[in-house]
Write a structure and sequence with these properties.
This protein is α/β, with parallel strands linked by helices and about 200 residues long. The protein contains 7 helices and 10 strands. It starts with 6 loop residues before the first strand and ends with a helix.
C-alpha cells in the first residue's frame, strides 16, 4: 500500500527506561533493535518520512541503531517526561513545514516500548484516516485500545500547548465521538514492554 507522503511517523524514544534497566531502543526483537523494528514497520506500510525523538543516552543509541534515512531530534529535557518529547517531535515537523516541505496531514505516533505491531496496522490506520478524516484513529483488538495511534494535523497545536504534567491522552479524549477505532487482529498493538519480565515474554 502506498501511504500519502503527508503522513509521517513519529517515534518517541527519549526516556530513561528505568524499570527496564537498559535502553529499550536497543533491545532486540526478531533480530533487530526495537527502534529499527518500528522504523521498518512504518516503512513497510509506506510511511517513508520518520522522525525519532531521542534523549537519554542519545549518542550511544545513534551509534548502535541504524537510523539511515531517519530524522533525529534530541530532547535535552527528556527528564520532564514523554510530553516534552512529543512536543519536541511535533515542533520539528512544524518547522520543516514552515520551510516549504509539504504540510503534514497527520502522524503515526509510536512509542519505543510498543515494537510488536505489524505494518498492516499502520496501513489500516492510514486508510481509515484518509476515508474519514477523523482527528484520531486508534487500533483496537477485541475492544481494547492499542498502539500506534494516528493523530491528525489539527491536534498538533493543542499538543504543542500541553505542559509537562499533562499527557497527550488529554487532547485525544477531548475528541470524543470524533475518534475512529479500527479493529485489527494483531495482538502486537497491546504489547507494552516496560520491564524485564514483559521483555522476556515478548522474546520467549
Amino acid at each position: 500500500m502506498t501511504v500519502s507522503p503527508r503522513v509521517a511517523g513519529l517515534i518517541l524514544a527519549a526516556g530513561e527506561s528505568s524499570r527496564m534497566g537498559r535502553d529499550k531502543a536497543i533491545l532486540l526483537y526478531r533480530g533487530r533493535t526495537f527502534l529499527e523494528t518500528i522504523i521498518g514497520s512504518l516503512n513497510a506500510a509506506g510511511v517513508k518520512r520518520v522522525l525519532v525523538v531521542l534523549g537519554h543516552h542519545a549518542e550511544a543509541i545513534q551509534q548502535t541503531v541504524n537510523l539511515a534515512g531517519v530524522e533525529v531530534v534530541i530532547n535535552r529535557d527528556y527528564q520532564r517526561g514523554q510530553t516534552s518529547s512529543l512536543r519536541a517531535g511535533l515542533a520539528a515537523l512544524e518547522k520543516t513545514a514552515a520551510q516549504g516541505i509539504k504540510t503534514l496531514e497527520g502522524i503515526v505516533l509510536c512509542l519505543v516500548d510498543h515494537p510488536a505491531f505489524e505494518p498492516a496496522v499502520v496501513s489500516a490506520l492510514v486508510a481509515a484516516f484518509e476515508r474519514s478524516g477523523a482527528p484520531v484513529v486508534i487500533p483496537t483488538l477485541d475492544g481494547r485500545r492499542g498502539h500506534p495511534v494516528l493523530i491528525a494535523r489539527p491536534l498538533f497545536g493543542p499538543m504543542l500547548a500541553l505542559d509537562e504534567g499533562t499527557g497527550a491522552n488529554t487532547v485525544i479524549r477531548a475528541c470524543g465521538d470524533r475518534t475512529e477505532f479500527v479493529e485489527v487482529r494483531d495482538p502486537g498493538i497491546l504489547i507494552d514492554v516496560d520491564d524485564p519480565e514483559t521483555y522476556r515474554q515478548l522474546t520467549a
